[in-house]
Amino acid sequence: MARPAMIIVGSGEAGGCAAVALREAGWEGPITLYGEERHGPYERPPLSKELLTEKEPPKPRPSAEAGRFDELGISHRPNSRVIDIDPAGKEISLHSGQTAHYEKLLLATGARARLMSVPGSEYALTLRSFEDAWALRHLFGAGGHAVIIGGGFIGLELAASAIKLGGRVTLLENQERLLSRAVPAELAQRLHEEHVCRGVRFHFGASVSRVERRAVILENGERIAGDVVICGIGAEPETALARKAGLRAQNGIVTDDRLCTSNPAIYACGDCAASVHPQFSDQPMRFESWQIAREQGALAGRNMAGANERQSIVPWFWSQQYDLHLQIAGLPDLGKSTVVRPLSDDAVLQFYIDGGGRLVGAAALGQLSDVARDMRIAQMLIARKATPDPAVLAATERRLKTLLAA
Amino acid sequence: MEEGWIDACAIDDIEEEDVIGFEHGGHAYALYRTLDDRFFCTDGLCTHEQVHLCDGLVMDTIIECPKHNGRFDFTNGKAKGAPVCVDLKTYETEVRDGRLFIKAG
Ligand SMILES: Cc1cc2nc3c(=O)[nH]c(=O)nc-3n(C[C@H](O)[C@H](O)[C@H](O)COP(=O)(O)OP(=O)(O)OC[C@H]3O[C@@H](n4cnc5c(N)ncnc54)[C@H](O)[C@@H]3O)c2cc1C
């Protein structure tokens, strides 16, 4: 019989971190990372930002872990789509017909761009992979008019990139404001103003009835023509494999606070997983965040190697549009009251405090140099379940760092 | 002072447990002061994404990159784990008459 092996499905940010962590946590047997893309783990955040606007011909930027696979004896198999899991026989099947036996399995399959369900939706481009970005770069490079459906992070970052390249942008949003789910209203408003000031045209409350190759037709009959139509209406967790194998999945593959699924030999992490974050809630939550994918990947790796650690990750996310950096830590939604700390003339930090006085979230918007330090301190305070004095949080003359000593 | 030393700033320009940026000859440096008043100098840009480290947070002898929280020990430039894996270059420092000198190049 073959040596017991650890198998990871999906060689993205989370999968790469898991492979390295497994080895560093002492697993000495084989580790195989199967990925359907032709690249090893690479960074997706630049795909909507620098990669579109920088002069040099774009290349995928490998994640830090990718360079260590050889040294750590991790086997990475690109172009390898896993199509089936047999939980009883502990075996996976690849599209090539090959099978492989696992001791423990990690699903790090990420998410894919959500598609619209209107006629012609196939004409709208989406963005998830390096190849998607490559295609967009060519279209953006020609200047022209981009019609973007969806005012979420990817839509807004793409708008900023298109403007930077000298193009025109019309953005269609079906809610009455931008980022209504993810970002506190005042910060979303400031971002909106920046986009307007840079020349982006917005249609709020816009519902799309049909897409053509170079136009979007709204329910009210209005036709918005452009040179390219892009759809950025969010992402859906890649759960098909898990469902087929009978694992619990709702909005994501459901795991406990140790990232173990409803099958004790199968773990899940990153964008595909809805996991329990015990310091915030006992309900599984799913995030789409680079930092969480990395930390969960590392935790899943350690736990597969036998650590049995509960997750204590403070969610952290950033977005960059023009020179504005948005950072969100913790869970602003859990806040019952808000404390505002101005960081400069054009940068603000908001703290979100729950009913018991605990700091549960923070969000900041402004230049990176104005927001980064205080956001990092906020993140550490959230991790410590701190109950800071709101007066100190608001007082710009008091260094936030002093709260860490308390 | 010998060749190669540059007068970078007054030591009081840097708060305790903090960092400031400094440019010389088109090169960005980061200058650090510890809680116990020791001074250090490294390259000014993170090795991960070319972000200015002087906007980052100093905790003890660690500087965290403001963008992705990559961490370096600024006393020796060592990268302290992913996402950063390339060490920072460090430069000698010396304090004279309340001013901080660095040996650039
Ligand atoms: C354009 C863009 C910009 C972003 N910007 C930011 C940002 O600014 N800040 C931030 O915090 N986050 C950002 N994110 C989110 C961040 O990139 C993700 O949260 C992160 O990549 C998730 O990592 P993951 O490993 O869970 O999934 P992924 O990185 O998506 O990796 C999953 C991998 O699994 C592969 N796979 C799926 N199914 C199979 C199968 N059956 N067999 C084999 N392989 C399979 C996929 O092809 C993929 O390569 C951005 C994402 C995108 C797309």
TrEMBL record, chain A:
Keyword Oxidoreductase belongs to the record: yes
Keywords for the protein's UniProt record, in alphabetical order: FAD, Flavoprotein, Oxidoreductase
Cofactor dependence: FAD
Keyword hit for Cell membrane: no
All residue ranges annotated as the Reductase C-terminal domain in the record: 316-404
Domain FAD/NAD(P)-binding positions: 6-297
Entries under InterPro entries matching the protein: FAD-oxidoreductase/Apoptosis, FAD/NAD-bd_sf, FAD/NAD-binding_dom, FAD/NAD-linked_Rdtase_dimer_sf, Reductase_C
Segments for region (Disordered): 34-70
Highest taxon of source: Bacteria
PANTHER family per record: APOPTOSIS-INDUCING FACTOR 1, RIESKE DOMAIN-CONTAINING PROTEIN-RELATED
Protein name: FAD-dependent oxidoreductase
Source species of the chain: Hoeflea poritis
UniProtKB/TrEMBL annotation, chain B:
Superkingdom in the source lineage: Bacteria
InterPro entries registered for this protein in UniProt: MocE_2FeS, Rieske_2Fe-2S, Rieske_2Fe-2S_sf
Pfam families: Rieske (PF00355)
Sequence ranges assigned to domain Rieske in this UniProt record: 6-102
Keyword line: 2Fe-2S, Iron, Iron-sulfur, Metal-binding
NCBIfam families linked to this entry: MocE_fam_FeS (TIGR02377)
Official protein name in the record: MocE family 2Fe-2S type ferredoxin
Organism: Hoeflea poritis
